[in-house]
Design goal:
Helix content is 39%, strand content 6%. It has 201 residues and is mainly α. The protein has a two-stranded antiparallel ribbon.
């Protein structure tokens, strides 16, 4: 019989539902990286597996509630996950705008760098990686909630009203500057190459 993690990797939602109907405790297992089945499904973009786990065993763990889209019962804003991310990083990854607002209101640091060995990023960097650009300009009913630094916020007029929004392209600006620099360098005439001084190897 396959383990729940093998079923997650196969994105077999039906088999996961059958397994959890017989053994709900399987949802609380941990893999070799100390990740739960729900987190493994989220990280590996196994959408059918994620939906099957979430619907079969409603999450009660604060970290799992965060990744599942809940906005209450979350980890402390200064907590760290087993793989080196803050709750704000994971809320951004999951596209959980309500949790982003709740965590920022509770004092979460939008400039915190993750501790994961494979990614030293801010929550905004995580949002860009996950394609959750809307998180960067999530607004409450009163004022914008931004993960970008304040200098990235620009006034914008849309549909006859002025609003402050954060550019979702700000994370790509350094790359654009490097590309422009490369184009400018390639356009310059190359100087004639001088003979190298000293003996040849």
């Amino acid at each position: 019989m396959k383990t729940i993690f093998e079923l997650v990797d196969a994105d077999d939602g039906d088999a996961i539902r059958d397994l959890l109907a017989r053994n709900p405790e399987a949802a609380g297992e941990r893999d070799e990286q100390e990740l739960s089945p729900l987190f493994r499904a989220a990280y590996r973009n196994r959408t059918a597996a994620f939906a099957a786990i979430r619907s079969s065993v409603p999450p009660t763990d604060p970290w799992e509630r965060l990744i599942a889209g809940e906005s209450d019962g979350l980890p402390a804003p200064d907590a760290w996950s087993v793989d080196g991310f803050t709750p704000l990083h994971l809320a951004a990854f999951a596209g959980n705008a309500a949790a982003v607002r709740a965590l920022l209101a509770a004092g979460a640091d939008p400039d915190a760098l993750s501790r994961a060995p494979f990614a030293r990023v801010t929550p905004l960097g995580t949002a860009a990686f996950a394609g959750s650009h809307a998180i960067a300009r999530t607004s409450s009913s009163t004022e914008p909630t931004r993960l970008c630094p304040p200098r990235s916020a620009r006034p914008s007029t849309r549909h006859g009203r002025t609003e402050t929004r954060c550019s979702s392209r700000c994370s790509r600006r350094p790359a654009r500057r490097r590309a422009r620099a490369r184009r400018a360098t390639s356009a310059r005439p190359r100087a004639s190459r001088r003979p190298r001084a000293g003996p040849l190897p």
